[in-house]
Amino acid sequence: MDNKPIAKAFQFLGELMELHEENPFKVRSYQNAYMTLRKWEQPLGEMPLEEIEAIKGVGKAIAGKIKELLDSGQMQTLEKYKAQTPEGVQEMLQIKGFGPKKVRTVWKDLGVETIGELLYAINENRLLELKGFGKKTQEDLRQQLEYYRLSKDKFLYATAENEALALVKALQTALPPSVKVEWTGAIRRRELVLESIEVLVGTADLSPSELGAFLTEIQPAAGGWRGVSPSGFPVRLHVCQPDEFGSKQFRRSAAPSFLEAFLSRFPGQDFKGLAEETAVFERAGLPYLAPELRSAPDALSRAIPELLDEEDIRGVVHAHSTYSDGLHALQEMAESARNAGFAYLVITDHSKSAFYANGLSTERVLAQMAEIEALNAAMAPFRIFKGIESDILADGSLDYPEEILAQFEVVIASVHSNLKMDEAKATARIIRAIENPHTRILGHPTGRLLLSRPGYPLDHRAVIDACAANGVAIELNANPYRLDLDWAWIPYAIEKQVWISINPDAHSREGIRDIHFGVLAARKGGLEKSRCLNAMDLESFAEWVGKA
Description:
Layout: H1 3-19, H2 24-37, H3 49-53, H4 59-72, H5 76-83, H6 87-92, H7 100-110, H8 115-123, H9 135-150, E1 155-156, H10 157-174, E2 180-183, H11 185-188, E3 193-194, E4 197-202, H12 208-211, E5 216-221, E6 224-228, E7 234-240, H13 245-253, H14 256-265, H15 278-284, E8 315-319, H16 330-339, E9 344-350, H17 362-379, E10 383-391, H18 402-405, E11 410-414, H19 423-435, E12 441-442, H20 460-470, E13 473-477, H21 490-495, E14 500-503, H22 515-524, H23 538-546
Parallel strand pairs: 4-7, 8-9, 9-10, 10-11, 11-12, 12-13, 13-14
Antiparallel strand pairs: 1-3, 2-4, 5-6, 6-7
Helix pairs in contact: 1-2, 1-5, 1-7, 19-20
């Protein structure tokens, strides 16, 4: 073992011990050992034990641990602290500028144990409640986490969208106007998680010199080039002849399972050499299928939907204000929704069990309702609906008494705690909440956080069936870390005539824009305007609310 990993082991041990609030003198001794050993030129593995002990700042105890590492590749003390620390918390210690004290705070005070959960906590402004964290600290940390995520080979669609748009625009500017440049691959299908930004360029030749202005680390790859965007996203450029652009675009935009199913329907049919992608479908005798629908082969066996557009959304459902854990006041949230062209806002701050999110006591619920009534009088015809995101407790009950639940116009029932139930218990818990006569929408059904935390196991069919039987809509939470309900279950929900509501779960004015990502995910599942709850106009939505 070289000196560098030995030094890093002591650095990590010091961080873990500081995280667990161990003796600060011991912590400092390991930190000093790291500083000394990382600069030590003579290989420790070639030194006698007594010479290692004689190194200033090392001594007998640390030398013994170095011997452990040299002999076995492990250090017993380090392994002990690693065993006491969740892997995700250990990973947080690798984030630049995020030291053990801050890591401990978010771990112990917020129960955050993974990078993804931390990003989501930042999105919900949870860190602002903690000592030592302010808006700037929170934003700096978010940027560091996003950068760290890029180095882990996968990233969310939402984090890459603007970069991908800028890349296409730069290519279009640099190349002749006749050259087609379009997204391709997973990003064109709007997959929720990506490994690279893929672009198809219809030109006979594309040289590295033409790419140097907007890509770095350019290398040849089969059929094109690969490189890195200015913000660090991996990029794959595919190059093809202009007269085969349509054929190549179709093949590269389709998921492998979809492409296999498509080609098997037309054995012997030639789909090569087509300049326009629409020509592929014309040759197959099929209506054009939007790229978002080319993720699953069963899209070929369903009627082609008239997909929901972002402009179809008429109201903002599921938003938080400073009454709980939002960044902006109720009036600011309402004005932002109105100014963005929406006709209504369903304000759904956290309920009283959500102590971590400044959940509303009964007294504060009534105070908010009074403010809503005053704002509605002043802002008409725009309307704010009195809502709540009520925690589903472990037994499936909601966390307000009957007389309070009855006063809300819209209750979104969501799970935020006890996420480790087995499928039977988790499903029974959700169904009991759905059967509560006050529940109107089931919020983020599985509790998942993409790239961080899988959703708890659910019998999705049983849950959707229960929603159908009880007239409960299902949220597609548009926050790009959630996008839950997963789009793959939308066809079954449509079959059961369950409303899908594209909800931003906005914790700030800017969070309202996440509706964009929810619509993209909903389109993958074939959602049409006619089955989207908040595509209803104000009058229709108010009528739906009144049928509770």
